[in-house]
Design brief:
20% strand, globular, single chain, 47% helix, alpha+beta
Length: 240
């Protein structure tokens, strides 16, 4: 079986083969809730393409993204930490496929030293991403945050084209849709992206990196081996 997930590829061959023996390749629908608030997960996920979002849920039902996970990592941290549940929701937001592993098998496999080390390392990355995004949402302009989010998404999916509605982008950035529409229009008018009928195409990664706030560079430097952005635009272009 061909594997694109970078975290799986970092795990020794024997352990990766054991994970894949228990895995089923699935294609969640956009908007599917893979794990809800305080819910014990039934599966862990290693995305092959597409993207899942870890979101904070408010009392009024509104959501804001805390972290995004694509082919750089896995979804289902509570299966590793042993808590069994989380105060956040996991939503599938960009179309694509994922290796889905039943919770019991995932817990057993996470007990293998090399697998556990890789999973814990990625959990640290998610914690750093959440911390940086929290500061980003407080301090930076919506246009710069949108550029940062688009870059992070581009790093975590295959290709430079992905489906994304204004409603979902607004929810991910914790902003009103009209303001997000203006921010996306600004990036489009600068020739950095196209955005038509819910489909984004990244045209100019270097320009988008220049338009993004400092947070994208901080996260890319912190984990250079995980995202294409961590080693520059040329690598992302070459991967396509």
């Amino acid at each position: 079986m061909t594997v694109a997930n970078r975290l799986l590829l970092q795990i020794p061959d024997q352990d990766r083969a054991a994970i894949l023996r228990h895995a089923e390749l699935v294609a969640p629908k956009v908007g599917d809730v893979l794990q809800d608030v305080w819910e014990v997960p039934e599966f862990g996920y290693f995305p092959e393409s597409g993207l899942g979002s870890i979101v904070a849920v408010m009392e009024d039902g509104s959501i804001t993204e805390a972290a995004s996970v694509g082919l750089d990592g896995f979804l289902g941290a509570s299966l590793v930490t042993g808590t069994g549940y989380s105060s956040t929701r996991i939503v599938w937001q960009v179309p694509g496929e994922s290796h889905r592993v039943p919770a019991a098998a995932f817990r057993d496999l996470a007990g293998r030293p090399a697998v556990r080390a890789a999973l814990l390392g990625y959990i640290q990355e998610m914690m750093d991403q959440m911390s940086q995004v929290a500061g980003c949402n407080r301090r930076h302009s919506l246009s710069a945050r949108a550029a940062r989010w688009l870059l992070m998404t581009d790093d975590r999916v295959i290709g430079n084209v992905f489906q994304l509605t204004h409603e979902f982008l607004a929810a991910m950035l914790g902003a009103d849709r009209p303001k997000v529409t203006l921010a996306a229009r600004d990036l489009r008018q600068r020739g950095l992206i196209t955005y038509q009928r819910g489909v984004v195409t990244v045209l100019d990664r270097a320009g988008l990196e220049a338009a993004a706030c400092e947070c994208y560079g901080v996260l890319a430097r912190a984990f250079p081996g995980r995202s294409a952005g961590g080693v520059g635009s040329a690598v992302k272009a070459a991967r396509r």
